[in-house]
Amino acid sequence: MPPTAVHNVRRIYKIASVPGDGIGPEVISAAITILEKLASADGGFEFRFQHLDWSSERYKRTGKYISDGGLEALDGFDGILFGAVGDPDVPDHVSLWSLRLAICQRLQQYANLRPIRILRGVSSPLRNLDHDSLDWLIIRENTEGEYAGQGGRTHVGTPWEVATEVAIFTRQGVERLMRFAFKCARKRPRKKITVVTKSNAQRNGLVLWDEVAGLVSKDFQDVKMDMMLVDAMTARMVLHPETIDTVVATNLHADILSDLAAALAGSIGIAPTSNIDPTMKNPSMFEPIHGSAWDIAGKGIANPIATFWTAAELVRWFGHHDAANKLMGCIEDVCEWGIRTKDIGGTSSTEEVTTAVCKEIEAAFNLFEMSE
What we know:
Blueprint (H helix, E strand, L loop, with lengths): L10 E10 L3 H19 L2 E7 L4 H7 L7 H4 L5 E6 L7 H15 L4 E7 L17 E7 L3 E10 L7 E7 L2 H17 L4 E6 L7 H13 L6 E6 H10 L6 E4 L1 H14 L7 E5 L7 E5 L16 H13 L3 H17 L12 H15 L8
Parallel strand pairs: 1-2, 1-3, 3-12, 5-10, 8-9, 8-10
Antiparallel strand pairs: 4-5, 4-11, 6-7, 11-12
Helix pairs in contact: 1-9, 1-11, 5-6, 7-8, 9-10, 10-11
């Protein structure tokens, strides 16, 4: 459970660091550098990191991603900073279910938050799109739905083999996520939410989803709700991004929509995500969404911006909103100066971007005078 921020008291947060695979260790190392610089500059909090070697390399050595008792040990942390999971030598469904989804489900991190906007200095592939026209919050159900893990295979390898993948929607699960989403929408200036499903074709679970959304909306009369089928939503995101604010969708649908959203905002390399337990009974987990990206791993060119933005969301979750806002301002300043990695039109390395953001943090907290 994250401690509540208390003014004038230096809070200490214990963070589990899970770098994982591919570029994960590179961007997590950079994010820790940024978080330590931010904490030192702010003076109101500090972080104590414990590194966990949960990775595909460990799996290949031991047959396990997570050490015995590891999931239970996470209860002793205030938060989790996660890099990426995925390895060419390990089937994706094995790595995902053995690590990331195992953490999310065990800790009841049922709300996945993905803020999306075009940062200063970053261009959208959409022509003539004003930066203010794309400022979204996508909220994804994170512990059930299409990724509930229910189903199986029989008669494997035979012509009559059968495989089932069962989507699970519980009224409790849908309602708790929907209420959280409406609360988030209420806090945003436009007070607007789009509920996304595919209830014309999926006539049981997603009809329940629609019905629960309608019932919950009655308790949020100040929030304007509209509903949309997921296929139509993809077109709306591209053609009319200015009409969107807060989006809530199922595990699968929001997973896909948020990757599209990141690309529309400039690059999947800039997008963060937070796996939240809104009850605060369990630690929440913060991660970039870009994956392990083995094609650039070890080259020093991974974009750390998504992990820096993720770090800002971690700081915000602990109640240090001013520090989080300053960090985001520093990130955007650096992008605007042209200190960017290749995927967003620059030539800078991971280390160069990290160093520039650190210097800007010092300037933002008036620790030294920036030279022109």
